[in-house]
């Protein structure tokens, strides 16, 4: 019989292959009466029998149950179709996160009523089980309330990170576990690579779609359970697969706005939940002189130029928002650049020694990777020192750490910008 190489020999190494080949040649030489095709097939079977499936489990896809988070968009729908096509037992779950009105339904946002219907149609097309979970209360408490309070503090929040951190990767994670699923699979554009029993997250191949910035707060336990099939794929390929699967969302536009913010109108959301927050206050220059009046600090973000409504001999930008005094501080563009960033609530996905190497950071979702070093004060706080100044760094945004290895740019963790 064909014997497996010693356990110390990696399954996919050339040494393992040579062992099988030598055994195969020995069989052919001594058992001339055997059918060669049969022997070759047996050789392939012994190799294949030890292989992991595409999600990294040592069992057949038909024996693997997965939950796919289906938002109703083309990405998550394509993932569900790919997994079904590969033979996995797929359970699609769609979250109802908020009660949308006409203005929301007409805008390009995720998780609206139309998206839920689209997800349901895709599940029906693929003949997979589909569940809808009604999480409006959880979403309001964990995401919307945080968004409103952050703006009132003069910050620029990122509700998508909060949503992933709370509702999606916490509550949905627990639901998937309760369903005895082997993995929770999503349509996010990030790579996850497991090496030496440790799973790490990397920037996606399609850097224009990379979503690793929004997932920096993922815990190690969650990361080991999550799978991201689109991380090594370009968006055009995703749509091509969706068309080949004849999915109704193949040409559906990508969501662009925050799901509960119709047409990007943040002020309307604050007005709805905190109508008392629109209070007039002073606009000051760097000398502390009052040069204008604003209608509410929630109308401003760091680095903003338009809407200040104060004329000067040179363009003015928002440099600081003082929520305690209800003041906006403005000044020239050259004063926007910052090199030192204080962080809070840091989440690490790597060891402290990894942070001692050359690293890069992103201080906004659409920003470039910036060379920097990180000094941890304790497990929760730290300081990032940028090699070169960066404009428009705003409290409330995330600062995400990366370093580069043979697999690409690995996510080391990150924290929330305090100042």
Please summarize what this structure is:
By secondary structure, the chain is of the alpha/beta class. 29% of the residues lie in helices and 25% in strands. β8 and β9 (290-294) form a beta hairpin.
Descriptive terms for the model:
419 residues, alpha/beta, six-stranded antiparallel beta barrel, five-stranded parallel beta sheet, 10 helices, 17 strands, 25% strand, globular
Structure, explained:
This protein has about 425 residues and is an alpha/beta fold. It contains 10 helices and 17 strands. The protein has helices at about 15-30, 35-50, 75-85, 100-105, 115-125, 135-150, 160-180, 220-225, 235-245, 265-275, and strands spanning about 65-70, 90-95, 130-135, 185, 190-195, 200-205, 225, 280-285, 290-295, 315-320, 325-330, 340-350, 360, 370-375, 380-390, 400-405, 410-415. It has a 6-stranded antiparallel beta barrel with strand order 12-15-14-13-16-17. Helix 3 crosses helix 9 (about 235-245). The termini are far apart. Mean pLDDT is about 85; it is low at about 1-15, about 25-50 and about 100-110.
List the helices and strands and how they pair.
Layout lengths: L13 H17 L5 H13 L16 E5 L4 H13 L2 E8 L5 H4 L7 H14 L2 E6 L1 H17 L6 H20 L4 E3 L4 E6 L2 E6 L16 H6 E2 L7 H10 L21 H8 L7 E4 L5 E5 L22 E6 L4 E5 L6 E11 L10 E4 L7 E7 L5 E9 L7 E8 L2 E10 L2
Parallel strand pairs: 1-2, 1-4, 2-3, 4-7, 8-11
Antiparallel strand pairs: 5-6, 8-9, 10-11, 12-15, 12-17, 13-14, 13-16, 14-15, 16-17
């Amino acid at each position: 019989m064909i014997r497996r190489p010693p356990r110390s020999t990696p399954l996919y190494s050339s040494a393992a292959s040579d062992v099988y080949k030598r055994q195969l040649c020995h069989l052919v030489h001594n058992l001339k009466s055997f059918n060669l095709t049969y022997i070759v097939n047996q050789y392939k079977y012994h190799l294949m029998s030890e292989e992991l499936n595409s999600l990294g489990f040592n069992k057949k896809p038909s024996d693997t149950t997965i939950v796919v988070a289906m938002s109703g968009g083309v990405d998550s729908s394509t993932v569900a179709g790919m997994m079904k096509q590969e033979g996995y037992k797929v359970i699609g779950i769609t979250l109802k996160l908020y009660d949308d009105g006409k203005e929301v339904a007409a805008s390009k946002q995720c998780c609206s009523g139309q998206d839920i219907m689209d997800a349901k149609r895709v599940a029906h097309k693929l003949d997979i089980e589909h569940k809808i979970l009604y999480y409006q209360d959880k979403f309001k408490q964990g995401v919307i309330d945080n968004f409103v309070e952050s703006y009132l503090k003069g910050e620029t929040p990122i509700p998508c990170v909060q949503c992933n951190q709370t509702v999606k990767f916490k509550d949905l994670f627990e639901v998937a576990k309760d369903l005895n699923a082997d993995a929770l699979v999503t349509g996010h554009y990030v790579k996850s690579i497991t090496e030496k029993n440790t799973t790490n997250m990397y920037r996606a191949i399609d850097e224009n779609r990379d979503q690793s910035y929004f997932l920096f707060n993922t815990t190690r336990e969650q990361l080991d359970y999550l799978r991201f099939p689109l991380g090594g794929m370009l968006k055009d390929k995703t749509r091509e697969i969706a068309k080949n699967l004849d999915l109704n969302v193949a040409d559906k536009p990508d969501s662009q706005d925050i799901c509960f913010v119709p047409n990007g109108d943040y002020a309307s959301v604050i007005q709805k939940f905190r109508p008392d927050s629109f209070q007039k206050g002073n606009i000051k220059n760097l000398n502390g002189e009052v040069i204008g009046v604003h209608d509410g600090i929630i109308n401003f973000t760091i680095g903003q130029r338009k809407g200040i409504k104060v004329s000067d001999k040179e363009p003015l930008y928002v440099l600081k928002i003082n929520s305690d005094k209800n003041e906006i501080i403005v000044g020239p563009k050259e004063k926007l650049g910052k090199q030192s960033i204080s962080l809070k609530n840091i989440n690490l996905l790597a060891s402290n020694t990894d942070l001692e190497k050359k690293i890069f950071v992103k201080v906004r979702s659409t920003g470039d990777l910036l060379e920097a070093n990180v000094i941890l004060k304790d497990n929760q706080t730290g300081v990032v020192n940028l090699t070169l100044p960066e404009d428009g760094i705003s409290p409330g945004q995330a600062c995400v750490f990366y370093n580069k290895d043979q697999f690409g740019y690995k996510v080391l963790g990150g924290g929330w910008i305090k100042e």
